[in-house]
Amino acid sequence: MTESKRLKATFIGLSAVLMWATLGLFGAGSGNVPPFLLNALCFGISGTLAFVWLAVSGKLEKLRQPLKVWAFGTIGLFGFHFFYFTAIRNAPPVEANLINYTWPLLIVVFSAFLPGEHLRFHHVVGTLLGLAGAVLLITGGEGLNFSGGSALGYGAAVASSLFWSSYSVLSRRLGKVPTEAVAGFCLMTALLSAVCHIALEETVWPEGSLEWASVAALALFPVGLAFFTWDVGVKHGDIQVLGAAAYSAPLLSTLLLIAFGFGALTFSVAIACVAITLGAVIAAKDMLFKKRNRDGKAT
């Protein structure tokens, strides 16, 4: 793959991080819809729209993949969400969210085992800075209090982090599987989420146009298109840069919530902003500051 194609794929993958930053805002607008029902609605809408697009463009054959590919994609998407929801239900949300958000760090570490990838010191430094910023952002600068009675929730948070980081890194091994196949993974995730909703939750539908619009926005972007662009990024882009940059999602999400009146800009948010931004720049220094020869090629 040429350097320009790798760079393009990286930027496409980064668009997923930007879309995930809207999760908090659109999630707040979706009202009191329980998590698995919201998951079923969003993945159902995004999967159906993608399926229709494939049918109209004559690309339905892209969904004809081996069973192991279907299992991998479905387990990756659904497994992450299942364990994440289990974590926040059975452990203090701040601690559970913090444990879950070790997945960008794990992506950077696991990527060292991929063919052709090299984990360098600046990747680790940049990612750890991002993690430090995320810790400060999530905790608000206050101490953590890991409860002894929340082992199930903490274990589920670890599982959610391992599921998403493993899915992202192992996707590189399936580089020949077209991104269009993600449509099928979304539909299967919607189905499994609906089953979990029926078994575990009380049904609360969105109320009014604002809540339905928020659900639609979730389905179109952070719980829809983002998974397709992330697939392009982790398969063909700079996966270590993507892992480090993923820490900007909770930061951008917090800034959006502040901008729309759901929070306040504090000193801890400002410091987190500096740490996460600096960490992303350090991790991406090869991509941002590569010297070019007279032919315009990176050296």
Structure characteristics:
single chain; 299 residues; mainly alpha; globular
Looking at the structure, what is the overall shape? globular
Unreliable segments of 5+ consecutive residues: 292-296
Mean pLDDT reading: 90
Task: Give the DSSP E fraction (strand runs of 2 or more residues).
Answer: under 5%
Query: What is the assembly state of the chains in this entry?
Result: single chain
Number of helices: 14
Helix-strand sequence: HHHHHHHHHHHHHH
Largest sheet: none
Q: Which percent bin holds the helix content?
A: over 70%
- What structural class do you assign from the helix and strand content? mainly alpha
**What is the tally of beta strands?**
0
Span between termini: 15 Å
Task: Describe the protein in words.
The protein is mostly helical. It is 72% helix and 0% strand. It is built from 14 helices and no strands. The two termini are 15 Å apart.
Indicate the topology.
Blueprint: H1 3-20, H2 23-29, H3 35-56, H4 67-90, H5 93-100, H6 103-110, H7 121-139, H8 151-170, H9 182-200, H10 208-236, H11 239-245, H12 248-259, H13 267-283, H14 285-288
